[in-house]
Amino acid sequence: MATVQSKPALWNKITKFLREVRSEMRKVSWPNRKELITYTIVVLVTVLFVAVFTGVVDVIITAVLNLLSQLGG
Questions:
Q1: What percent of the chain shows pLDDT beyond 70?
Q2: 7 vs 60: CA distance, rounded Å
Q3: 10 backbone dihedrals φ, ψ, rounded to 5°
């Protein structure tokens, strides 16, 4: 019998949670189209910068390790 009573309680908790999520989502300040485009460009430029930086560091470290292995071998 306990499982029969727990199902409605669980369903009530889920629906309450979803109502609260909906309520909170209405409070969110969503960006307009111009802000969204600006933020997207900032993210893409940042990702590109980090990728190029990581690539350059990788090339430098690889070159240094190759040089060290040639000197040691």
A1: 90
A2: 60
A3: -65, -45
- Percentage of the chain exceeding pLDDT 90: 81
Length of the chain measured in residues: 73
Q: Which residue is listed with tokens 């560091």? A: 57
Cα dist from 19 to 8, 13, 27, 61, 73, whole Å: 16, 10, 13, 53, 68
Neighbours of 24 (CB within 10 A): 9
What digits encode the pLDDT tens for the residues 25-52? 999 999 999 999 999 999 999 999 999 9
Task: Kindly give, in sequence order, each residue whose CB lies less than 8 Å from that of residue 39, ignoring residues fewer than 6 positions away.
Answer: 31
